[in-house]
Inverse folding.
């Protein structure tokens, strides 16, 4: 199929592969993941975006997110604490963060960065400034006080998993292990 015209090379490319991880009982092809990621980034400026929900539980979301992150070196899986990015994602969501070059950032991209308090934050890029990118939680009235620059940028959100909170774990030991190895990031009020 080839690359989309004007597509930034730092972000995922289309793939002709026919294998992919199973997400919520459905095989997800790399093209589908990329398309969802592109739609998400393109829809970021619009306030009518609705998050996809799942019947899969946290164990499945973490397992599938780790399988996806394993396909892209330097990617990491994190869990969200906070609700400043609703309706895109909320408390308990599982994200795959991919490393991206600082010059690949654009308004609308959901960036993960370390703020001046040492907290890892995931918020939407709103505009460029001479000293870095300004970011703000979707539900926050004001921008974060820390600008995103090449030193504090962790990456960009590549995939979002919305686990169903009441789905039981099939393997409690595996869930405990997955939770222990998954860091939390904040989607919180600006500070």
């Amino acid at each position: 199929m080839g690359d989309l015209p004007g597509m930034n090379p730092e972000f995922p490319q289309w793939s002709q592969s026919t294998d992919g991880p199973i997400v919520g009982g459905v095989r997800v092809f790399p093209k589908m993941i990329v398309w969802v990621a592109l739609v998400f980034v393109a829809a970021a400026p619009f306030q009518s975006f609705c998050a996809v929900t799942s019947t899969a539980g946290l164990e499945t979301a973490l397992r599938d997110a780790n399988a996806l992150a394993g396909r892209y070196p330097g990617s990491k899986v994190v869990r969200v604490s906070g609700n400043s990015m609703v309706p895109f994602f909320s408390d308990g969501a599982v994200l795959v963060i991919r490393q991206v070059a600082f010059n690949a950032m654009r308004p609308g991209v959901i960036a993960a960065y370390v703020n001046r308090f040492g907290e890892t934050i995931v918020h939407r890029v709103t505009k460029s400034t001479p000293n870095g990118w300004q970011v703000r939680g979707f539900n926050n009235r004001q921008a974060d006080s820390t600008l995103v620059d090449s030193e504090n940028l962790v990456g960009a959100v590549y995939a979002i998993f919305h686990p169903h909170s009441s789905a039981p774990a099939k393997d409690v030991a595996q869930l405990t292990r997955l939770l222990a190895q998954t860091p939390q990031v904040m989607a919180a009020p600006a500070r």
